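Q: Got a minute? One more chain.
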Amino acid sequence: MTNFDHIGVLGAGAWGTALANVAARGGRRVSLWARDPGAVTTMAVSRESLGLPGFRLDDRVTPTSSLAEAIDAGAVLLAVPAQELRAVAALASSLRAGTPVVACAKGIERGSRKFMTEVIGEALPQAVPAILSGPGFAEDVARGLPTAVTLAAQDEAVAQALAQVLASPTFRPYHATDVRGVEIGGAAKNVLAIAAGMAAGKNLGASAQAALTTRGFSEMARLGRASGARSETLVGLSGLGDLILTCASPQSRNFALGLALGRGEPKPVGKLAEGEFTAQVLVELAAAQDVDMPVSNAVADILRGAVTIDDAVESLLTRPFKAEG
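A: Always. Here it is, folded:
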């Protein structure tokens, strides 16, 4: 098994720096890569996270703009947005064969309709792809608040080893081999969180929120089953758990986007909501498998300006009656 004394983290945003600190708390030496040398210098001098202002970098975290240094590690965490993951992964072409590369973004690549581990497999065929997902906000993780997530790889031994590398008294990764189930949960919940935010922004009430979240989970489960995901994954941390978190808190960037749209306000500035880019490709993927996802379809239609939120709500409420399922 690979020596995991050194961990590379590509991406020094909020999630990347939070995960760098997680790995460092476990006693690992961590190289935190950022493309901008100026940002690296600032972090090295201030020892403060740029992605999470006010949070100190662990002493074992070394900011660097040298990609070669960051990927000369036992494992690499790709903590960059889903739509940028391929480009960043391609930069790491000199990665040693057999190195685990963990996608820490939740989404589906536009155009290719590829999930994150598939993108890693294409961009870095010598890597061992894995995925980290689940209900965790970067700020909570950085503060050391109790968090549990799922880390999946096709090889259970790899998944288990990686989970142990990142484990700490306040950060508990559960290992799994259902890679596709974990990825579907992470991608779908972002889109459904936008819907929940819209409902909150429109003041539709707690009952509507509960119904929307439940019916949204049914959509996620249908797509998961059609894609070969395991039911225990869909009702686990990376599925239902993450959905509950992001559909109930303005701390979620996707919920915050929906909230702003529901209130008729501008989108939050400087806050990337992955669901905004995932919505259309998610419904395309569902349609290709003949999976009915009315809530996700409504979000995609609203985001591309095809319908208003009011029209989408009316359309959902007037769908034909049927048995629950």
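A: The CA atoms of residues 80 and 88 lie 8 Å apart.
Q: Perfect, thanks.
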